[in-house]
Automatic annotation (TrEMBL):
<keyword id="KW-0862">Zinc</keyword>
<dbReference type="InterPro" id="IPR057246">
    <property type="entry name" value="CARBOXYPEPT_ZN_1"/>
</dbReference>
<dbReference type="InterPro" id="IPR000834">
    <property type="entry name" value="Peptidase_M14"/>
</dbReference>
<dbReference type="GO" id="GO:0004181">
    <property type="term" value="F:metallocarboxypeptidase activity"/>
</dbReference>
<feature type="domain" description="Peptidase M14">
    <location>
        <begin position="50"/>
        <end position="433"/>
    </location>
</feature>
<keyword id="KW-0482">Metalloprotease</keyword>
<dbReference type="GO" id="GO:0005615">
    <property type="term" value="C:extracellular space"/>
</dbReference>
<keyword id="KW-0378">Hydrolase</keyword>
<comment type="similarity">
    <text>Belongs to the peptidase M14 family.</text>
</comment>
<dbReference type="GO" id="GO:0008270">
    <property type="term" value="F:zinc ion binding"/>
</dbReference>
<keyword id="KW-0479">Metal-binding</keyword>
<feature type="signal peptide">
    <location>
        <begin position="1"/>
        <end position="29"/>
    </location>
</feature>
<keyword id="KW-0732">Signal</keyword>
<dbReference type="Pfam" id="PF00246">
    <property type="entry name" value="Peptidase_M14"/>
</dbReference>
<keyword id="KW-0645">Protease</keyword>
<protein>
    <recommendedName>
        <fullName>Peptidase M14 domain-containing protein</fullName>
    </recommendedName>
</protein>
<dbReference type="GO" id="GO:0006508">
    <property type="term" value="P:proteolysis"/>
</dbReference>
Amino acid sequence: MKKRKALGYVLTGGILAATFGYGAASVFAEPVTTPNGPWVQDEQNLSLAGLMSNEQLEAKLKQIEKSSQGKMKLEQIGTSNDGYPLYVAKLGDNAPNKKRVLVYTQIHGNETLGTEAAVDLMQKLSAGGKEAKNILDNVTVWFVPRINPDGTANQYNGKQYPTRYSHQTWDPAALGLPAGTKAPWYYNAEGSERAQNNNGAVVYGIPGFDLNRDFNPNYDFNVNEEIKRNPEKVAAVLNDSKTNNGAQAALVFSPETRALTKVVKEFKPDVAIDLHHRGFNQLSEEDKRSVSIQLLALFTTKPFTDPFSGKVYKVDPEVETLSKKVNAVAYESLQRGNSSFGAIQKYPQVNYPGSGLGAIQLNGTATMLIEIKGQTQTLGQKQNGMLIETAKVPVMAVLNGLADGSIEKADPAVYDAIPDFSHPVNPGGNQGN
């Protein structure tokens, strides 16, 4: 992948974001001897071999488009801060009578397996066959793989070390804001506590944003225009701890987030699916299986008020119900086949209007978060392969359920009954997306 010229830090457009916080990322788990691991030894950093680099991903996407015989259309939707192109892969003709599904991955650069799963799904749908034809006859599917290529390609001590964050320096003066204006709370300043993992062993060495904090339900908000009109107002929002925090508001500064928002605004998906990684859990005190996936249907539990427009956003009850049905179908699909990967929990309930799925859901789209266990560095190639296969199952189940209409018959109570988050193996590790 030929890197394009970096965009720098002066924005060309944007939207206001409500923001939120998850736990700091950690790639290590404490050793535990239980079935259905692996529980990786402390400080063990396994090979990233077999996972696609940014260059390999771009080449693969173009190869799939070429071999799809017109079934998949690849479009560039933007450029990352470091100059990597961002893509959407479109499958289906987006006819008005079809359901629309958006799948996006790797908004955190060190959460890689969702991208591998998405590429496999693109290949499956574009290759044809009875199942793929039935889906694409009834559903349009867009994929945005690897939203954070900069974090994916991050280097530490001369070696590849994917990180959660993007690469972008906070420079208020360049943005037209008063000198000393505080950065968004989710900014990862070089050398700060946020720039290290929880035991201080790894300094990522780069400034940047946690991109999954950089969204807002107000898709039309343009941060540059707002700064031109009223820089003092923007600075006041950022300088006030009551508004610059996880459940309130900050400004969208990342080109990656703006690119995804543009796609969502154009596509207006009925369902959006976001693939992440988390830490390690066992299912329960009695059932000591390692939880392979956690699911979450609802991302805001309170109304959100845009501090600039004053507009109030809240989740439509029908959207909440469909979200639960989607996740119920996903859960039941993982109870079949390999029982060791049927150990599923519910992700802890959150109130995050500034997450990707939070903002999308507040605009009328049903949502599903898929949290795959572990970070890539903590898992061997065999385990990575098994988890990639596992992550594909719920996505295909949802696509099939939308295609044949059966998802409407799903019982939301199935989602409510999914076992809650419990029994983290390393409570200090990454338990959040």
